[in-house]
Amino acid sequence: xxxxxxxxxxxxxxxxxxxxxxxxxxLQATDVNIDILYCGVCHSDIHTVRNDWKGSTYPVIPGxxxxxxxxxxxxxxxxxxxxxxxxxxxxxxxxxxxxSCQHDLEQFCENGATFTYNSPDKHLGGQTYGGYTTSVVxxxxxxxxxxxxxxxxxxxxxxxxGITTWSPLRHWKVKKGDKVGVIGLGGLGHMxxxxxxxxxxxxxxxxxxxxxxxxxxxxxxxxxxxxxxQDAMKAxxxxxxxxxxxxxxxxxxxxxxxxxxxxxxxxxxxxxxxMREFHGGSLVMGRKRVAGSLxxxxxxxxxxxxxCGEHNIVxxxxxIDMQNINEAYERVTKNDVKYRFVIDMASLK
Amino acid sequence: xxxxxxxxxxxxxxxxxxxxxxxxxxLQATDVNIDILYCGVCHSDIHTVRNDWKGSTYPVIPGxxxxxxxxxxxxxxxxxxxxxxxxxxxxxxxxxxxxSCQHDLEQFCENGATFTYNSPDKHLGGQTYGGYTTSVVxxxxxxxxxxxxxxxxxxxxxxxxGITTWSPLRHWKVKKGDKVGVIGLGGLGHMxxxxxxxxxxxxxxxxxxxxxxxxxxxxxxxxxxxxxxQDAMKAxxxxxxxxxxxxxxxxxxxxxxxxxxxxxxxxxxxxxxxMREFHGGSLVMGRKRVAGSLxxxxxxxxxxxxxCGEHNIVxxxxxIDMQNINEAYERVTKNDVKYRFVIDMASLK
Lengths: 349, 349
Hints:
Two copies of one chain form a homodimer.
Chain A: E1 3-9, E2 18-24, E3 31-41, H1 43-49, E4 66-73, E5 85-88, E6 91-93, H2 99-102, E7 114-115, E8 135-139, E9 144-145, H3 152-155, H4 161-171, E10 179-183, H5 187-198, E11 202-207, H6 213-219, E12 223-226, H7 230-235, E13 240-245, H8 254-257, E14 260-268, E15 274-275, E16 278-279, H9 281-284, E17 289-292, H10 298-311, E18 317-321, H11 325-333, E19 340-344
Parallel strand pairs in A: 10-11, 10-13, 11-12, 13-14, 14-17, 18-19
Antiparallel strand pairs in A: 1-2, 3-4, 3-8, 3-19, 4-5, 5-9, 6-7
Helix pairs in contact in A: 4-5
């Protein structure tokens, strides 16, 4: 018997989100059914609702920062039991056999990962529906264990904002004593600061806004560098071991590249759009690098959640009711949130 | 007693090169005096003569692909003796004590490497003078040993074009079986093809010009990919382990980034100027990287020369007399040379 769930979604690129009823698939042998407690609001949700990246198929039910409790497990589920606190992030399936999947990089599955929403649904046809809903059915391989000691509301954004910043910090081996810059203090940036601090780095928040200094330091930054202050930028030239760039829109890169040490890397995680011109010499002089990074694999996501449990790290959030999602979207687009909205799904039940 | 040498140089950004007489410093304890046999003509020579990068101080005596024989050594020279075949590349000095120098990256000397021409001269004041001359005095630490079994004329461009392409291939650990792209078939690109081939890679010449295909294959390319052929570009998408980008001017990067595998790097060595806009997603989707690389350190340059001796690799060149340098410059700016001009310095003596 197919399951239904209450949800909130958009019927078109210009419509507000509104209540809907969606189908969830019947539980398969390796499936876990999850009662959703909280779901974070990611900027990608808004881009998909508004079809900014094209390819949106309506209705769109967004949400890929899902926290809930297991209510049912299929007969072959061996990792989870009823009552477990779990999470589902940006992906719900992948081929599990290609080179990327075998290297724990499901986000780059060569046969196409199934993303949590607006991705072709192998089970029901049509598109996948995300976490702005009361329940989700997901294969156990894509279900994450959430430590019971951390606040589950604050844990929701770890599933996207968390892993998106954790993955590059780990992949580029940020370690104790490294000087790490985090550019931009938003949903991603505030997690980057917390993680880099917890990894033992000397963390510098790089921002255009002097008024973000206090908050950056509260979150774990040891210094704040105002990128419009040319003297300050010069004083930090060629000194960073790693820079995590969370700016969500296209921007100039040369001023930030000037901050990198020889052989150091700046990783873009926020801007899936055109970057402005940059000077070849900004990379050539110092063998510097620019890279990109996309969320992270499932194994790495579990490692991140375990680390958060050990270090008691969650996101700074504002909790909203499902019914207030449209106002929340307006505020996100104005960067008016510290630092992530999380929907309390009890409001939909 | 100060030495003088016959030379060719430019008195201003708009002047042709003309005969001059320059001073060379007296031999110091660790200096080697070199009778110059050949000097390659690098595009950087022209940029400096024409003040394209600003900061040129006249007269400019270019030339940093120098091959010659030792005629005299200082009392503390222990690496070279009279008669040795040697080379001098882009640098003639560095502090030898900073972090970069201690890691064999003299090109990034934190106290400023002394480049072979148009760099502040610590000994005589003014600017250093390059290799378009009959002799040069150089500290032994910056003199390279040239294998006697390779053609000394063809060896000249190894000192810049050679190390510029060798260094990134080695630093990014190109190995047997890797699929390596070399973009652009000029002075740099033709060396990139030879080296990548000799390192055992599957080499793909990536060019806009179908008429370069035969020559690319003669030089060692296993395939030729015409970058304007969109079907061909798609067929090669996400398949390259490494791309060496020798395009000498600013250009679009997205089409080339699409060729890289997950985690693979494209290295810019040619364009010290503005690159066009590129899409953040070109890096984010696949955790791809763009880097820059500048010549190479002295130790690595010696390794490259030794490798050339073992594999009998030299540049493809056209030999000219010193007096024909101005015509050669015109031809270089039109890419009308296969693949490097080398001045026979006997013409100046």
